[in-house]
Amino acid sequence: MTADFPASVDVDYADGEGEDPDDYPSLRHKIEKAVDVTRSGLETYENPAVMWTGGKDSTLTLYFINQVAEEFGYEKPTAVFIDHFQHFDSITDFVERWADEWGIEVVYARNEDAGEYVAEHGLEPGDDIPVAELSEQNQHHVREILEYEEETFPFLLDTYVGNHLLKTVALNNALEEYDIDGVISGVRWDEQEARADETFFSPRHDPDIYPPHDRIQPILQFAEADVWAAFWNHVVPDTVEAFPDDGYVPQADDDLPEGVSSEDVPISPKYFAGFRSLGSEVSTEKTTEEPAWLQNLEGTTERAGRAQDKEDLMERLRDLGYM
Fold first, then answer.
1. Strand order in the sheet with 213-216
2. Which of 76, 222, 282, 293 has its C-alpha lying 20 to 30 A from 47's C-alpha?
3. Weakly modelled stretches of the chain, pLDDT under 50
4. How far apart are CA 42 and CA 38, in angstroms?
5. Residue 310 φ/ψ, nearest 5 degrees
6. Annotated domain spans of the chain
């Protein structure tokens, strides 16, 4: 891929400009738009891939991809899972289980250089990594791109340097390795202020920052409550044969229909346990014991359980290629 990447695709980069979830007044309107954007993405790009974290948003996005690919005969794109070495084990187990169920190929994007240093020295989250011990590529990102001047940085995902090296650099290397030209992601307008101005097709064409590609974002128009409504009215009934199709909403993991366990449902067990937004194991906390969909979605902040130093830097991180 080259710097003239925009000439190779024909999409409306202004689609969604100035809009918010209220411009799509019903769940049906939101789903119709998601299907339309997903179909355009699968038709337009030569080698699209979907970012899958195991969280609710990327899993909903993957559901739309499955539905569109099966209905219209498209090849299912590869799923890219960024392995930042600090995941909940249950999330990786969830991804592998549903990748097999849905016939999705998963590739793991890792910053192997940083990961090898951590493994060789037995580091735990929060331990320091010397910048001088990293590869030339990683040192370039730390010193020249991030303009970070300290001699060490903490092995933590939700920090400026840690997030960039463990997630963004890993992603960019995967885009280049697999020649991916369209990244389908599950970001939403209402999730984080830095994402509020995104459009359904968003260009990332500066070759000095990332391998040129487009972001394809089918669920921008979903509010958090809409995501859960889509799961209980569509995703779960369409996936689990024994689940009622009348919008039944369980009150706990032991409140599922007879013959259905939480493992049968394509929703991470962390949401049943009270987590509302999933990040690294060491920097994400549950906000209550209630399942995520029963919490006060309107009156509280969705990402309150996430490390706030990264949240405060979100706009700068996104400029550098973060999702």
1. 106-109, 78-82, 48-51, 182-184, 213-216, 201-204
2. 222
3. 1-2, 308
4. 6
5. -70, -40
6. 5-223+306-319
